[in-house]
């Protein structure tokens, strides 16, 4: 027999996290502001107690190990209970994004073969609409009480909580999230207990979320998207106080942040945009947060600057559903104290450095076997590997990785000598002009700096001589005006001359995906007949 070491068996199951939180930080509060305006308070001990009851209730419904339970819900304490309760009965929680289109909702619930679906009353209309199409769902439970039945609290309330977690292998699945690509059906990414545990532990690094015992986190990133960046697990490990809001109204978030002593928050850039607008309209200061993690899409310069001037550490994070999701975080680097404010802002605009546990590399866009240098200049297709990176999509027949285990992210970027990742595009969107690559994202980021530009999207249009040339689509800010020539002139000192768009087109709106990102595919479809004149 192969010799093993002499340490204890300790299966990495995520129920350990809630056990730890309840034992070591049992009275740290979990506050929820519900959609109807009411508020409840529980704590880590309460979350564990309810998760045990929920696990019992699921088994009482006849669920078996490995069965999928869907949640269609915003951020709140009962959703948190489900994260641990489903895993605690050996099940797999499928967090469904309520913003998906009906055909996607149909596909993912049937594909995951969800047996139970637990939903917020706010999404009753989705349930009513989709019920006949969701053929595998046997039980519907509502997170809210009131006229909806059965209500979550009553359902778990029938159990006594006297229950041993269902055990198993640490490589068992515990959660599944679907990622809706731009083409084809959404794909399921199934996280394991072990991968989730390692990812959450990595999230505790000082270069990642950097929680302390006094951290109070209000995560705006939804629990239905990319495992809420692993925060419900990292937060449990650190025993922090959570403040959840089931609505994303900036007035509500602001009031909660001020009243509950929130120190940390996390969300996509638009969350901060809305918050800035709210504070400006009210003539009030931003909340005094210690740290704001921003990811999902690039955080613009003015946002980083404003938060940093407010004394908030900005942690610009990159990741994707397939990477659990954290890949890189932009915490302070070794040279941080010697940098000027502007240099710190410039560094924070990049996507940060890999947290311990994952490796990054870039390969040539023309030849994926050729690794590119980490010189801060050469761009390439970004690949990642590590224990919380996808190997194979749910029910897929083949691995999604290269033979040497790298997952191709579909992102394009450069890696700087100090390991900092700077994303420049998506492989599908980067524009090939005369054999050279133009970053559509850099053009967009530069264009939104123009005072009259509300939103900009750049796509490559076919060109007889150059293969493709950039065309910039712009939505003007209300009450402003400008010409295409003015925008090109504005860009002239910000990007290389040969990058300047061949045309600037003004549009009323730019299409977005269900997760709020610019949908270049829809934009291309909309302008399929476009010709460069
Ligand atoms: P999703 O799986 O829906 O979370 O989307 C992941 C994708 O979002 C990545 O592949 C990137 O293209 C994009 N993304 C995530 N974080 C960032 C970031 N900090 N800056 C720019 N793009 C990002």
UniProtKB/TrEMBL annotation:
EC numbers, comma separated: 6.2.1.44
User: Which reaction does this enzyme catalyse, per its entry?
Assistant: 3-(methylsulfanyl)propanoate + ATP + CoA = 3-(methylsulfanyl)propanoyl-CoA + AMP + diphosphate
Q: Which UniProt keywords apply?
A: Fatty acid metabolism, Ligase, Lipid metabolism
**Signal peptide annotation:** none
Q: Where on the tree of life does the source sit, at the highest rank?
A: Bacteria
Provide the AMP-dependent synthetase/ligase domain boundaries: 19-394
User: Has the keyword Lipid metabolism been applied to this entry?
Assistant: yes
What are the GO BP annotations of this UniProt entry?
fatty acid metabolic process
Residues covered by the AMP-binding enzyme C-terminal domain: 442-517
- Gene Ontology molecular-function annotations: ligase activity
* Record PANTHER family: ACYL-ACTIVATING ENZYME, BUTANOATE--COA LIGASE AAE1-RELATED
Q: Which family does it belong to?
A: Belongs to the ATP-dependent AMP-binding enzyme family.
Q: What is this protein called?
A: 3-methylmercaptopropionyl-CoA ligase
């Amino acid at each position: 027999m192969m010799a093993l070491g002499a340490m204890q068996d300790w299966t990495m199951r995520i129920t350990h996290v809630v056990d730890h939180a309840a034992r070591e930080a049992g009275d740290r509060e979990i506050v929820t502001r519900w959609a109807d305006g009411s508020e409840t308070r529980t704590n880590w001990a309460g979350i564990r107690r309810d998760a045990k009851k929920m696990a019992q209730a699921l088994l009482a419904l006849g669920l078996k190990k490995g069965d999928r339970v869907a949640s269609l819900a915003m951020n709140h304490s009962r959703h948190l209970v489900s994260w641990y309760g489903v895993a605690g009965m050996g099940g797999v929680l499928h967090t469904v994004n309520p913003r998906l289109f009906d055909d996607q909702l149909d596909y993912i619930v049937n594909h995951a073969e969800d047996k139970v679906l637990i939903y917020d009353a706010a999404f009753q209309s989705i349930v009513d609409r989709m019920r006949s199409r969701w053929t595998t769902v046997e039980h519907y439970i509502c997170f809210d009480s009131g006229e909806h039945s059965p209500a979550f609290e009553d359902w778990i309330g029938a159990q006594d909580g006297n229950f041993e977690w269902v055990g198993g292998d640490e490589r068992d699945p515990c959660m599944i999230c679907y990622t809706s690509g731009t083409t084809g059906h959404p794909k399921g990414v199934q996280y394991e207990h072990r991968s989730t545990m390692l990812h959450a532990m990595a999230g505790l690094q000082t270069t990642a979320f950097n929680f302390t015992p006094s951290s109070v986190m209000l995560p705006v990133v939804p629990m239905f998207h990319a495992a809420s960046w692993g925060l419900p697990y990292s937060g449990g490990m650190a025993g922090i106080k959570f403040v959840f809001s089931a609505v994303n109204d900036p007035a509500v978030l602001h009031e909660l942040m001020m009243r509950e002593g929130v120190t940390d928050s996390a969300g996509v850039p638009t969350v901060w945009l809305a918050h800035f607008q709210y504070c400006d309209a009210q003539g009030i200061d931003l909340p005094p947060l210690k740290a704001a993690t921003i990811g999902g899409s690039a955080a613009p310069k003015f946002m980083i600057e404003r938060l940093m001037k407010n004394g908030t550490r900005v942690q610009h994070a990159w990741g994707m559903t397939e990477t659990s999701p954290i890949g890189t975080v932009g915490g302070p680097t070794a040279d941080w104290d010697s940098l000027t404010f502007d240099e710190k802002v410039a560094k924070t605009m990049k996507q940060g450095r890999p947290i311990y546990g994952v490796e990054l590399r870039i390969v040539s866009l023309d030849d994926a076997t050729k690794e590119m240098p980490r010189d801060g200049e050469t761009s390439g297709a970004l690949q990642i590997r590590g224990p919380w990176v996808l190997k194979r999509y749910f029910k897929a027949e083949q691995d999604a990785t290269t033979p040497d285990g790298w997952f191709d992210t579909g992102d394009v970027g450069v890696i700087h000598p100090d390991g900092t990742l700077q994303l420049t595009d998506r492989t599908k969107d980067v524009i090939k002009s005369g054999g050279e690559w133009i970053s559509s994202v850099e053009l967009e980021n530069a264009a939104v700096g123009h005072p009259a530009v509300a939103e900009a999207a750049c796509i490559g249009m076919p060109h007889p001589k150059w293969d493709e040339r950039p065309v910039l689509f712009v939505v003007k800010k209300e009450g402003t005006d400008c010409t295409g020539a003015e925008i090109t002139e504005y860009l002239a000192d910000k990007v290389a001359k040969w990058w300047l768009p061949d045309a600037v087109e003004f549009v009323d709106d730019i299409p977005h995906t269900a997760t709020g990102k610019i949908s270049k595919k829809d934009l291309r479809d909309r302008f399929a007949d476009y010709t460069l004149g």
